Amino acid sequence: MAEHYQVSGSTSAAISASVESGIRAGALAPGDPLPAVRALAGQLGVSPATVAKAYQELRQRGLVVTAGRHGTRVRPRPPVATRRTALAPPPRPGTRDLSAGHPDQRLLPPLGPHLAALAAEIGTPTGYADAAVLPDLVAVARERFAADGVPAGELTVTGGALDGIERLLAAHLRPGDAVAVEDPGWANLLDLIAALGLRTVGVPVDDEGPSVAGVRAALTAGVRALVVTSRAQNPTGAAVSAERAAALRTLLAGRADLLLIEDDHAAELARVPLHPLAGATPAWAFVRSVSKPYGPDLRLAVLAGDEATVARVAGRARVGAGWVSTVLQRLVLSLWRDPATAELVRRAADGYDRRRDGLVSALAAHGLAAHGRTGINVWVPVPDETVAVTALRDAGWSVAPGGLYRIAAAPAVRLTVSPLDEADLPALADALARATHPTRGGAPY
Predict the structure, then answer these.
(1) How many CB atoms lie within 10 A of CB 244?
(2) Which of 178, 218, 320, 393 is deepest in the core (most CB within 10 A)?
(3) Helix 135-147 vs helix 326-337: angle between axes, to the nearest 10 degrees?
């Protein structure tokens, strides 16, 4: 914990408020340790039970995490606005930033022509009474889902994939319930689950998706929901194979006590067949975002599911945000219908495949086993994340430490291939090899 910040308070509520204030002000940074329960109780002149209750409240709200002998620490991305521009230090000036996880802006389709066309044809502004999911968008979405084998009798629209997942979890679960997630998995999802007061149960993931044994163990542990990434899993690039999907469908069949959520965030950018689990359980949802193929600023995802699940999501939206902008819906529909845009997305997918596959192959030539079957990220196991991240930074590359994505998985770093050109791959692979194995046989690599 930062030496200049002192936690204060004489009640559990005051202590937790003091910690939250420190996080907002930036005096308590992500990863900073909090004092041990008994030590802080002695400093404040309160009982250990009072401090323990404060820490419990902070954990339930997703602000801190307790990691056994490592004590209680501020979460990497606590769900509270801070007065700093970022929770993590920016990449060192002059380094290539491969840590962000964004698509390549050079490959995103232009929105200007579609917006201009909409401006000419949009007509009378939509009022509150007319706001809804556009029937034309639903019709096209159903066609696209049907082509991938996803049943889509019931559909709604949410403000992106994470918004859809949040609504699903909030509608079905209560604080304290357990959610099975991939390990390593999407950092934003891990933070969201903590912010909702839910518990994570990690499921090991390999190149073919969540392991059957891991899902079985999670079910035995009593999880109420399971979140699976269909393709382009973040951070490993895994994609659920036909064999894995069949085994998981058999395992999940008829589980009325489980909400099954599938996240197909990469959609058209993942150039492998989709093998959905949709419908394996009575309560299920399949979420497909448009952000990766068409642009992060398009905050829209289409959500298919069973009738009750979709009704719950749509109902919660109605009493909250209300609806996703029909202007945005029209823009997405225009992009979907445009053959030129479809060709641009296809070329983008090919470009990501060449960079990702090229990096994995270049690393293999150095004796490094990396993962990146689909998507825009490559996951590279390393002996020590801090050493690897520091060495790569010194060599001119900024990467994401695997600790942001792991629960119990082994150390690694994540690299996003979006900022790369194919000519960059040999130098990057060499830097990774040196960062991973700085010495071999007592001599420099």
Answers:
(1) 22
(2) 218
(3) 40
Read off the DSSP letter of residue 349: H
Name residues whose C-beta falls within 8 Å of residue 220's C-beta, 6 or more positions apart in sequence.
none
What value, to the nearest 5°, has the Cα angle with vertex 282 and ends 280 and 285?
75
Q: What angle in degrees, to the nearest 10, is found between the helix axes of 307-318 and 161-172?
A: 100
Q: Which among 445, 424, 436, 439 is positioned nearest to 392, based on CA atoms?
A: 436
Report CA-CA distances (Å) from 188 to 36, 84, 208.
Answer: 28, 19, 22
Residue partners of 36: CB distance under 8 A and separation at least 6 = 71
pTM of full prediction above 0.90: no
Angle CA 233–236–241, to nearest 5:
60
Distance CA(19)–CA(54), nearest Å, equals 9
pLDDT per residue as tens digits for the range 235-281: 999 999 999 999 999 999 989 999 999 999 999 999 899 999 999 99
Give the list of residues 6+ apart from residue 21 with CB closer than 8 angstroms, or none: none
**400 and 99 Cβ atoms separated by less than 8 Å:** yes
Separation of CA 36 from chain center: 31
Instruction: Give residue 441's pLDDT band: very low, low, confident or very high (50, 70, 90).
Output: very low
> Does the pLDDT value for residue 438 go beyond 90?
no
Strand pairing class (199-206; 178-183): parallel
> Does an H or E element contain 220, and which?
helix 212-220
Q: What tokens does 5 get?
A: 């910040």
- Residue 101 backbone phi and psi in degrees, to 5: 80, 20
The Cα 76–Cα 62 span in angstroms is: 10
pLDDT tens-digit series, residues 122-145 = 777 676 666 688 999 999 999 999
Residues in the chain: 445
Q: For 121, what's the count of Cα atoms within 13 Å in the CB-facing half-sphere?
A: 9
Residue 288 is inside which H or E element, if any? strand 283-289
Q: How far apart are CA 68 and CA 299, in angstroms?
A: 38
Among the ranges given (171-185, 274-288, 316-330), the one the predictor scored with the smallest mean pLDDT = 316-330
Across the chain, how many H-helices and E-strands are there? 15, 17
